[in-house]
Amino acid sequence: MPSDEPAEANRRDLPPSGRVADAVAGHWADRFAPRGWRPFLRLARIERPVGWWLLLLPCWWSAALAATAADRTGPNPWHLLLFLIGAVAMRGAGSTYNDIADRDLDARVERTRSRPLPSGQIGTRAAAVFLVAQALVGLSVLLQFNGVAILVGMASLLPVAIYPFMKRVMPMPQAVLGLAFAWGALMGWVALFGHLDAPAWWLYAGTIAWVVGYDTIYAVQDIEDDEIAGISSSARLFGNRLIFAVGVCYGAAVLLMVPALWLAGAGVLGWLGLALFAGHLARQALRLEPRDGLAALTLFRSNRDAGLILFAGLAADSVWQGLVGA
């Protein structure tokens, strides 16, 4: 049973600031938060906000697409706010769970050994308590929706629960991550309609492909350490075909979203948003360097902007169609 006490070597390797290697430089959580809070904020990835954005954006896409299908003038603002709170809480809970499960593996990878658990900033028991607290926040958000949405949301816990262990048993664990991070593509639809229809499933399928693509880019940072530690990733699996594979994932994402928009009755602004989203993804694939971890992190983070572009198009389309049809 691993001890809560950090290894002495990890204490020595910890940067004086305690900052995690891939955190946003100068983030408020590392600069202004009370020192006792900082390990918990780092455990929840607060200083790496792109994660909750990537969990949130499919919820917002789905809410906007559902509004178009329902002839509403824009997505439900209350739902958008609930999804925001839930995404931050559940991304934090998922990251905490992942770090508890991976604390030994993280200690063997340069980028992740500065995380709170392997570096000794926090103990496993305290992390577990924090995990429960974040999960309760997520549950309180979920309970604001209709009964079917609650059941659909609860079902997302299955891929979340098994993901940390997939990198030990399958060559492309990003596929399981895709199942979990794309779940919001179902939630926005079911929150409005109380059931799932074809557009939501097509959007979910496209979002899974998007997640696999961007997380493959993210995994470029760890290729060398993963090879030494024996950790599986899609970046290792694709090897010399990495750029082509990311392009295929991104192309599949866009193509699978086409029937989602078509069946939901998207208009010009929605299609424009998807076209601009596709252009952003193509640019990422063309700029990807298979062994440049720093550039890969920048490209990975840019998916927040890509997702916001698509949301802006879908939301504007639902507002425009709602006004014209009023």
What does this structure look like?
The chain is an all-alpha fold and 326 residues long. It is 72% helix and 0% strand. It has 19 helices and no strands. Helix 4 packs parallel to helix 12, helix 4 packs antiparallel against helix 13 and helix 16 runs antiparallel to helix 17. The longest helix is centred in the N-terminal third of the chain and has 25 residues. The protein is globular, with a radius of gyration of 20 Å. It starts with 7 loop residues before the first helix and ends with a helix. The N terminus is likely disordered.
SSE layout and pairing:
Blueprint: H1 8-13, H2 28-31, H3 38-43, H4 50-69, H5 77-101, H6 103-106, H7 116-119, H8 124-142, H9 147-155, H10 157-166, H11 174-181, H12 184-193, H13 198-219, H14 223-229, H15 234-238, H16 242-264, H17 268-287, H18 293-301, H19 303-325
Helix pairs in contact: 4-5, 4-12, 4-13, 4-16, 4-19, 5-8, 5-10, 9-12, 10-11, 11-13, 12-13, 13-16, 13-18, 16-17, 17-19
Q: Which ranges are low-confidence, i.e. pLDDT below 50, for 5 or more consecutive residues?
A: 1-14
Proportion of beta-strand residues:
under 5%
- Sum up the overall morphology in one term: globular
Q: How many strands appear in the DSSP assignment? A: 0
- Give the mean pLDDT: 89
Termini distance?
63 Å
* Tally of alpha and pi helices: 19
Q: What characterizes the major β-sheet?
A: none
SS class: mainly alpha
